Amino acid sequence: MSTSEYVGENGNNDRYRYPEQSVKFSASPPTIAPSQLGGYTGSGTQEDPYVVDWDLGDPESPYNWTKKKKWIITMQLALCTFTVSFGSSSYSGGLTYIMADLNVSQDVAVLGVSLYVLGFALGPLIFAPLGEVCRAVFLTTLSAYTVLHLGGALGKNLPTLLSCRLLSGTVGASPLTNSGGVISDIWNARERGAATAIYATVPFLGPVVGPIIGGYVAQSPSLGWRFNFWLMIMLSAVTLITGFLLTPETYTPVLLRWRAQKLMRASGVTEHYVSTYDISRPKSLGQVVRRNLSRPFIFLFTEPIVACLATYVAIVYGTLYALFSAFPIIFQQHRGFSAGEGGLAFLGVGLGVVMGTTSTNIQNRFYWRAMDKSDNGRAPPEARLHMSIIGGVLCPIGLFWFAWTSQSHIHYLVSIFAGVPFGIGVAQILQGLTAYVMDAYGLYFASAIAATVVLRSIGGAIFPLFSTSMFNALGDQWAMSVFGFMSAICMPMPIIFFKYGWWIRSKSKLAYHNPEPRSNFPSRPETVTSHTEKKDATVIEAIV
62-249+286-543 belongs to which CATH class? Predict the structure, then answer.
C-alpha cells in the first residue's frame, strides 16, 4: 500500500507516514470498497481478526480534532460540572427559611447539603459499568438530574426533599467523575493544562457562587427558597440541551470499536476486525460490572499516590462544604447579616478561586520547560505540582486568618478577605493534583479520579454534619482553627510528591514509570496511544 506524508497542524514540520488508503468515517455509514479494507495487523479471520488502531495523524482521533471543537467540548463539560456543584450549595442559601417552613433544626436542614454531596460518592460506583460510553451517560444522568429537582420545588415534607437531594447528587456525580476522562481523551499532555485547570476548579467555584444567588432568591418575598429548585431545573435543562448538541463521544476504545464494526459491515462480514482495546476486554456484562466497580477501590487501596492525594483533596473539599454550615453562624447569627448578605461572604473565596485558576499559565510554563528538557519527550507528572506547593501554604494561612478575625468587633471585610488566600490555595491544589493524577495514570485516569471523587465527596458530606456542633462548642475561632490545623498537616504532601514522586511511581504496577527514548515516539505524541499507556492497560486488566 502506498504512503504519503502528513504535515502537522499549524504548518509545523512534523511529518508522519500514513496509509494513503485510510478511510475517514463520518456519522453516516461509510462506503468502502473491498480493496480499501485491511492495512491492520492480523489476517482478518475470526480467530485472528484485524486489530484496529488509529493511523498516524488520523483525523478521527480525538487528539487530532480542531482546537475549536476541543474547547467547545471543554466548556460544555465546565457548564455541566458548574451546574451540579452549584446545586450542592444554592440550597444552603435558604437554610434559615427551610428551618422555619419545615420546622426543623439547622443540623437537620443541613442534611440537604450532606446527602447531595454523599450522592457524589455513590454516583461513580453506580454508573461505573456505563462509564465507557461518556455521551450516553452524560445525557441520561443530566435528564434524571433535571427531573429530580421537582421534588424540592413541589415537595411538601422533609423526607421528599432529602430523598430527592440524595438522588440528585447521585445522578449528578456523572459529570464530576467522567469529565476528567473526556479532557484526557481530547487534549494531549502538553495542551491539557488550561482545560484541566478549568475542570478541576469549577467544582469548587460552583459551591461558592451557589450561596450568593441562593441566599437572595430565598429571602425574596416573591420567590422564596423553593425557587432555587426551579432555578436548578432551568439551568439543568440548558445544560442538557447544549450537551445533546455539542458533546460527541470521545472515548478512544469506543470510537475504535465503532470503526471496527463499520469495517466489518463494509466488508460484508467476510473479514473480522477488533479494536486494539477489545482484545483482552471482558465479554460478559458481569465481568464488565465487576471490573469497573472494583477499579476505583483498587486505586484507592493499592496506590499510595491516589490514597494520599485523595485524602488531601477530601480535607480541602470537606472544609469548603463545612463553610456552608459555619458562615450562617458567623455572619448571620453573630453579625446579623441577612441570607443574601451572608451569601456575599463567599465572595472572598470566589475571588481566590478565580485568581488561583489564572495561575495555570505560570504552571504551564514550568511544565513545558520540563517537557522540552525531557529525554523521552514527556515531562514527569511531578512537573504539574509547582502551584500546588504554593496552594498548600496559602490554604491554612487563609483559614487561620479567618479564624482569628471572625470576632464581631473586627470589621467583617477582614474576615471575608481571608477567603482569598484560601480560595487561591483550593484552586491550585485541585488543579495540580488532578493534572498529576491524570499524567501518572494515563488511559485509566478516570478510574483513579473516581477514587478521588468518592473520598472527597465523603468528606464533603461529613464535614457539614459536625461543623455546626463544633462551632457551637468551640467557638468560631477554635473551630475554624481545627480546619486550619488539618490543612497544615497536609501541606507537605505536594512537596513530598514533587521530590519523591518518581520513586513512588517506580514501585507502582499501574502508574507511569517506564520512560522510552524520544525516538520511540512520534514527534506529536497526541496522534497515537503511547506504548506506556497500552502496557498500563494490560497490567490493569491482569490485576483486575
Answer: mainly alpha
